[in-house]
């Protein structure tokens, strides 16, 4: 299974002056935790990290410190996540039939989650890890008035990994570029092309580190996991 890690963001909502994936989380850059989980997954055999070229020296330093056994390539990212993944897809080895895409910012995903996504992907064209939402979600109009309250039992919070048949996802990306679709994840492209996307049980702790609070929560979860006070 081939893995692409989008890591080319700016981390604006983190309010830091550099890519949030380079911030320290319990003694390691955030991205190192993501890579170590991928390294421990039996399903993953190749890792592509999609980043901005100005971050490559830092990425190389991380790779030097954690020395992975799997082949790793650095791929030039784009201005949006969608563009970054597009570039990643072009950089996959020719023989790649299936791809998992996992946000670098989801540094607490377990190797087990990569494994289950990788296994299930062999049986369907597209999947995403997701969990049922805990909050009641409101649809709100431009005047800050509620328009609707969707039935919570049908609402799921999308996570990554997301996995796809490479050829199908490439076609969806091409169509999206042609028709100028703007999406925040790859499943949305699949949906727009009327292709089925299966839900796989995600993990409650698989949060996307987005704001400073998330970083504090991630540290708490890691400390619990590793038995550090
Ligand atoms: N990402 C990417 N290329 C971009 C934008 C985002 O590869 N042009 C990646 C991020 O590095 C991250 C993932 O997509 O791993 C999810 O994006 P997000 O959490 O929004 O990260 P940022 O875009 O860095 O954060 P922000 O939106 O707050 O600037
Ligand atoms: Mg972003």
UniProtKB/TrEMBL annotation:
Record carries keyword DNA-binding: no
The protein here is known as 2-C-methyl-D-erythritol 4-phosphate cytidylyltransferase
Q: Which GO terms describe its molecular function?
A: 2-C-methyl-D-erythritol 4-phosphate cytidylyltransferase activity
Site: Positions MEP for the nucleophilic attack. Where?
152, 208
* Entries under SUPFAM superfamilies matching the protein: Nucleotide-diphospho-sugar transferases (SSF53448)
State the organism of origin.
Answer: Aphanothece sacrum FPU1
Mind listing the UniProt keywords for this protein, alphabetically?
Isoprene biosynthesis, Nucleotidyltransferase, Transferase
Its UniProt entry gives the catalysed reaction(s) as: 2-C-methyl-D-erythritol 4-phosphate + CTP + H(+) = 4-CDP-2-C-methyl-D-erythritol + diphosphate
Enumerate the Gene Ontology biological process terms: isopentenyl diphosphate biosynthetic process, methylerythritol 4-phosphate pathway
**InterPro entries, alphabetized:** IspD, IspD/TarI, IspD/TarI_cytidylyltransf_bact, ISPD_synthase_CS, Nucleotide-diphossugar_trans
Q: Where is this site: Transition state stabilizer?
A: 13, 20
Its top-level enzyme class, in one word, is: transferase
Family per record: Belongs to the IspD/TarI cytidylyltransferase family. IspD subfamily.
- Pathway per the UniProt entry: Isoprenoid biosynthesis; isopentenyl diphosphate biosynthesis via DXP pathway; isopentenyl diphosphate from 1-deoxy-D-xylulose 5-phosphate: step 2/6
* Pfam families xrefs: IspD
Top-rank taxon, per record: Bacteria
Q: What EC number(s) does the entry state?
A: 2.7.7.60
């Amino acid at each position: 299974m081939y893995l692409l890690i989008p890591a080319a963001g700016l981390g604006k909502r983190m309010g830091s002056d550099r890519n949030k994936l380079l911030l320290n989380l319990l003694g390691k850059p955030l991205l190192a935790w993501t890579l170590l989980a991928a390294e421990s997954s039996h399903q993953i055999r190749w890792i592509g990290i999609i980043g901005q070229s100005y971050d490559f020296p830092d990425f190389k330093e991380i790779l030097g410190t954690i020395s992975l056994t799997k082949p790793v390539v650095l791929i030039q990212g784009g201005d949006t996540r969608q563009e970054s993944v597009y570039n990643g897809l072009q950089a996959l080895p020719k023989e790649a039939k299936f791809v998992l895409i996992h946000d670098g910012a989801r540094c607490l995903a377990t190797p087990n989650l990569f494994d289950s996504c990788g296994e299930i992907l062999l049986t369907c064209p597209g999947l995403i890890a997701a969990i049922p939402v805990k909050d009641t979600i409101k649809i709100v109009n431009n005047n800050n008035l509620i328009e609707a309250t969707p039935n919570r039992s049908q609402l799921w919070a999308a996570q990554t990994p997301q996995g796809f048949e490479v050829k199908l996802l490439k076609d969806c990306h091409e169509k999206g570029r042609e028709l100028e679709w703007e999406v925040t994840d790859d499943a949305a492209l699949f949906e727009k092309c009327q292709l089925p996307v299966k839900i796989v049980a995600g993990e409650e702790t698989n949060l996307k580190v987005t704001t400073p609070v998330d970083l504090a929560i991630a540290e708490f979860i890691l400390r619990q996991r590793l038995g550090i006070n």
